[in-house]
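The instructor's notes for this session suggest beginning with a concrete chain rather than abstract definitions. Hand out the sequence below and ask the class to guess, before any prediction is shown, which regions might be ordered.
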Amino acid sequence: MYKSTVLKPVINKLTPSKNLPTSSTNSTSSKDNSALPAVSSVQAALQKMALGANGHSSGGSQNANSAYDHMVSNGDAWRKLPGKGKEAISLLSKSNINKLQSSKPNTLEREFIANFKQQPFYLSHFSSQDVRNKQGSAEFLSRKQLQEKNVSFNTQNTAQLDLGSFATDDFVFFALEVGDNNQKTSSRFGDINYRIRLDAVKDDIKQYGHLEAADLAMNDQRPSTKVPDWISHYDKDKFFQGDVVDHEIIDLVFYGKDMIEGLAYRIVQDLREFSPATRDKALRMKDSKEVNGLMNSLYRPQVLFPHSLILDPKQFKYNAASNKSSAPKAAPLKSKTVPTVQHYYV
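After discussion, reveal the predicted structure:
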């Protein structure tokens, strides 16, 4: 679902909702984390930093404020939001939750939401770099932090659209999955996969994260051209032409503690576009694999953390492609000025 390099001159549907509140002020093999490679450019940068542990973001609130201030001040999609920085995104999230909850879900929908919130959620991050230090801790740095530390990385991973429209280059991106087993074992972003149980990230860090239910540059498209098995014959055309075309970018954002609940309500709202046969079949899904398939056929959610995310060895699983080096080298920076071509690191 990741965006092409084609640039859109105008981002559609950026107008905030009317009821927005005002501002108040290949095959993989699991490897033990102790099997650490030689120091890479990323690792060298990490060793120069005062690393926290247990799912910390370096600098905490201060760095979160900086990342969200940069996002809201420079991203075209957020210009009309009331408030500044993370306050604006928090207000937006509350508005989205309130709007979805006011739709009065029925019994089956409420049961789905309750089951969805209890699922085992995981964060998945692919990279071409081994970001573990000698102690086995891992730190994931935003593009902006990599630039500031002059760390080499693949600058072709992101479209320029992300900078001008969303300004999320001071965030680290993780794909969201449901289920204890890897749902994705390869990515064009690299051969190394880090998988983190969402619950393993401490609440004082999750409170600064936000969820984007879809790739925001493709908010009016499904993540796949394949019709999922749970769609009835009568709804196959509607799957690509229904409510998805009416999604505004700002309707797809949920902040902090609202992330999972907001996504659950968003899915329920989307399912209402379909016939009872399709809708009821989807709402009765309980198994994690089924729920993951449902979630990732409607959307392709991503969780973003500001600045960086630091994890100790017990908090993540490290997987590298068996036919690749455990720490492949990234493309070197040709200069200190990094081209405005970027993408999410998931």
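Then share the key points. DSSP finds eleven helices and ten strands in the chain. Confidence is low (pLDDT under 50) at residues 1-18, 22-39, 46-54, 323-346.
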